[in-house]
Amino acid sequence: MTSMTVSHLSKTFKLNRKERLRAVDDVSFELRSGETTALVGESGSGKSTIARMLARLVTPTSGEILLETSNYRKDVQMVFQDPFASLNPAHTIGYHLRRPLEIHKTPGTAEELLERVNLPAAFAGRYPHELSGGQRQRVAIARALAPRPKVLLADEPVSMLDVSIRLEILNLIDRLKSEEDLAVLYVTHDLATARHFARDIMVMYRGQIVERGPADDVILTPGHPYTRLLAEAAPDPWAAHEGERPPRQERRNGPPLAGGCLFRNRCPYATDACAGDIPVYGEKHLVRCVLRASDRTAMERDGTPS
Ligand SMILES: Nc1ncnc2c1ncn2[C@@H]1O[C@H](COP(=O)(O)OP(=O)(O)OP(=O)(O)O)[C@@H](O)[C@H]1O
């Protein structure tokens, strides 16, 4: 069942008197209960801005976010990247968990919430500094679950944690998704965990969703040259291409491209057509590109025209 429908969502930031940055550009998708949808793309592509608009922390410039239910503040919860910044050092874990129960008038106790995330009930009396990063992230997840939300937004929930415990936390979110029938948006740089935990993957490039579809299809048979670049070089898309890594500023704002495909100045298959309107092809697996994957295979076989 659809929990949240996002239509034509855009966000333009005003950088200074003259400059504007279109961080999110006409994005539409659905989040369904009991399913994880991954949002992947390099740094600065707009992933967090989408999550923050869905959490109502950032006001959209245009577009619509429709929720099946009516109590938005209760039904949409977010887990942030930094488990050290998200808990107040002055308050106990119990306080952090009881607050949302009180605010949203949901039944339950801090101890029950701790159990749901596999932490001992005695942690309710502890302070954040007494916990490890992984334990804090479990607390942050428990706090997000306290109001019994329908939608959980997880923005890079494990990227600041020790590699050895990342899977535990992702498995926990996955189990809770099934138990609570949550619609999960998993924002990540990491294609491998996106493929493993998500049913669908959406690939963002400079504010636009350039490809989306069932996780295996997107990763194993990427349709967009950008997805292919990400998939070949995962987890860091530039790790294997260090010499070609574009400077951060260029990646973020880039040279101005009026319309057309925003990837065309980096794309090995770019043609004049890429400056025009870009069609979307596919049904379940959608790709925003003038060339189909089969055309590119033929170009590679027969030699790319110079
Ligand atoms: N409040 C803001 N004011 C101005 N620009 C912003 C603001 N928030 C984000 N941006 C810009 O919007 C673009 C998208 O940022 P966003 O954080 O959504 O990307 P991201 O894909 O989540 O990146 P990361 O993985 O590094 O978090 C970036 O160029 C960023 O600098």
TrEMBL record:
NCBIfam families linked: oligo_HPY
PROSITE patterns: ABC_TRANSPORTER_1 (PS00211), ABC_TRANSPORTER_2 (PS50893)
Keyword ATP-binding: yes
Molecular functions per Gene Ontology: ATP binding
Alphabetized UniProt keyword annotations: ATP-binding, Nucleotide-binding, Transport
InterPro entries referenced in this protein's UniProt entry, alphabetically: AAA+_ATPase, ABC_transp_ATP-bind, ABC_transporter-like_ATP-bd, ABC_transporter-like_CS, Oligopep_ABC_C
Segments forming domain ABC transporter: 4-231
Pfam families linked: ABC_tran, oligo_HPY
Organism expressing this protein natively: Nonomuraea guangzhouensis
Protein name stated in the entry: ABC transporter ATP-binding protein
